[in-house]
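Posting for a labmate who doesn't have an account.
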Amino acid sequence: MSQTLEKEVFQDEYESTPVPADKRKSLLSVSSVWAGFPMIITGAMTGATLVHGLGFGGGLAAMIIGNVLLFVYVGLLSGLGAKTGFNFSLQASQTFGRTGYIVCSALLSTLVIGWFAVQTGLVGASMESAFGLNAAVVALVAGILFTLFTLLGIRALAIIGAISVPLFLVLGIYAAVQATSGGADVWGYEGDGTTSLALGVGVTLVFALFADSGTMTADFTRWAKTPRQAWIATSTAFPVGNLFAMIIGGIIAASTAGTGDLFGIIAGQGGIFPILAIAFLVINLGSVCTHCLYNGAVGWSTIVGGKMRALTVILGAVGVVAAALGVWGFFIDWLNLLGVIVPPIGAIIIVDQLVVRRGVGLGIATGAVAAFRWQPFAAWAVGSGVALAVNLAAPSWSTVVAGLAVSAVAYLALSMLTRTASRTPAVTTAA
């Protein structure tokens, strides 16, 4: 491969510097990146879980509330990313400190590799269930393909999103029509009676599904030309893509008392549909896998001062091995963990960069920021602690809402108190 062709195929990913204005992508490209991420089989299965636990009306309410929260949360972080050109790690360094950011960046960059393993493993499990293939072997092959594709960088995410979205729209609607052909009363479905959920828990499940990559949205939206375009791109994911996937899963669940498994429904139709189902499964879950691996690789490359593609290979290998070993089975555990500890990070960044120190990331070199800022870490601890307490003492409430609100207020209060203290003249006493 010539150097010119190699440079064209493997473009600079700007792991440790802002994306220059002349390298930004079109609105369609950035929207394809985000739209193709949440419109996935996993979202449909989450929608089914909500409808079984809350009934169709209650499940739909949880979907809408959760997606509106995601839109505001991810949209604000996306706008900041487009304004500065910073990826998530650089964005976090402005708030947590130029070395302090490593704590939250390493956490999130590792969690998304867990998601990569979960979704890759789900490919293997689905193929085993439908066709009797060896789940570990399928996960291994799929994981290698996803890793190789991610090497194309942000371009890969736009390509797979542009393919995945229309495929999900067509097959998702088809599966929902098939499921409702028996004349079931979808709107009147009151749940299965065995997995009752509270509305607050449902909202947490919706938010937690994309709490990690949603917080790291700047990795994607730093490529947008303007904050407005970043907001538009975000809206294609939340509420549009994510809500559509969940509603499809909810309709199927209310009609068949099933899990919202689109792949299983399509694969069971016979004829050409099993082939379509396989392509759908690989492309659809491949979308979320490439996004998660990209997040992890960009994050860790910033931390260690490496290149995104080298980290993609290393982290992809780790994720593939984990998938083959069956890590995907811990799906709900990941949701619970993310719902408690991740959202406060984004809330603190939003309050810091839009309220307390408005514009801190604009025109300020990372080195101009303190090495470690204790206020955001204290607020993070308080917010996560309250969210955990809510989870234990008031399980019907939303841990996400508690964590977001408390961490934001805590950071604002700490910032005001420390600013007041720094302005108070010292009192001296006579010897």
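Reply:
Got it, the structure tokens are right above this. The chain is about 75% helix and 0% strand.
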